[in-house]
Amino acid sequence: MKVEHSWASRSAVVVTAALALVQLAWVLDGGDALVVTVGGFLGLLTALATAKMARDNCFESRLAACSVASIQVAAVALAATLGLPGAEHRALSGHLALAGALAAAVLVLVPLDRLARSHGRGHVPPPYAL
């Protein structure tokens, strides 16, 4: 179901689009095959979630954006601590830190959208509507 955008949902769309661009930039940088493959796959999924969230702002689009952002945060945490599977441990790069920060921002903005919609215009949505 299509839902009106709030300031938080518009911000989430912009941040999610920036995350997709950072992920797709890994593909253009080349390098390790694992990073290129994972970056391209996550970048494509993030771009699709961004387009759906910009158009409809429905539960499914927010779920997809949060899922991809959660995967990105987990990948950053794994890369920063133990290293990605099949790859050696490396220092945290600027691209990786930026992707982690953007993904964390998505995970903050999506719940803020829910709060902004619940406190705006005196309209109380049903308790099951996210």
Question: Characteristics of this structure?
Answer:
130 residues; 4 helices; 73% helix; 0% strand; elongated
- Major sheet summary line: none
Beta-strand proportion: under 5%
Average per-residue pLDDT, rounded, comes to 84
Helix content: over 70%
Could you tell me how far the N terminus lies from the C terminus, measured between alpha carbons in angstroms? 10 Å
Total number of strands: 0
Structural write-up:
With 130 residues, this protein is mainly alpha-helical. The chain has four helices and no strands. Helix 1 runs antiparallel to helix 2, helix 1 runs antiparallel to helix 4 and helix 2 runs antiparallel to helix 3. The longest helix has 26 residues. The radius of gyration is 16 Å and the shape is elongated. The mean pLDDT is 84.
What are the SSEs and their pairings?
Layout (H helix, E strand, L loop, with lengths): L6 H23 L3 H23 L3 H23 L12 H26 L11
Helix pairs in contact: 1-2, 1-4, 2-3, 3-4
Question: Care to give the gist of this entry?
Answer:
With about 130 residues, this protein is mainly α. About 75% of the residues lie in helices and about 0% in strands.
